[in-house]
Amino acid sequence: MQNKLTWFDLNYRTDSESKINCCLLRLFDLIKESLHIYFDIKESLDINNFLIHAERQNKDNLFVEWFIDKGLPKLKSIDFNNLPKDDRFLAMLEIDEFVLKNEMDFSDPEEVRGCIISFVNSLRQYIDLCKEELHEECRV
Predict the structure, then answer these.
(1) Which domain holds residue 66?
(2) Is the dihedral of CA 81, 69, 48, 41 positive or negative?
(3) Where are the beta strands (DSSP E) in 6-130?
(4) Which of 38, 48, 68, 125 is 20 to 30 A from residue 54's alpha carbon, by CA?
(5) Tens digit of each residue's pLDDT (9 = 90 or more) over 71-107
(6) Cβ contact 11:36 at 8 Å
(7) What pLDDT, on the 0 to 100 scale, is given for residue 136?
(8) 106 with 37: CB under 8 angstroms?
(9) Number of domains making up the chain
(10) In sequence order, which residues have a C-beta less than 8 Å from that of residue 105 and are 6 or more positions away?
């Protein structure tokens, strides 16, 4: 998983064989691809290089600013080595993957942007919800 997430400046090593990590990899690949399509940027070395190119375009600067100021810090705050390992977490990720895949026709580019923002904003909540439910199950 490390190689795929290094583009996002996320240097975590996880078990890429698990269903959860495979789904997460697919999601991050979709996000990377959709960002490139959305901003019409063919290639970039990493997320920081990408955001520099996107800023220069003066296209949707609010989205670029959100990614720099909020999106990346939120992603970097997540411990990808300590993700929940239950089916509920996988289901949450699969729903986000399904929704983003269905928006990849770019019939409404703002929907793609919304999917990315929603996923990044929700990932911490998904993790916290699953861990909270696990702790409650252990107390019973």
Answers:
(1) 2-139
(2) positive
(3) none
(4) 125
(5) 999 999 998 888 898 899 999 999 999 999 999 999 9
(6) no
(7) 56
(8) yes
(9) 1
(10) none
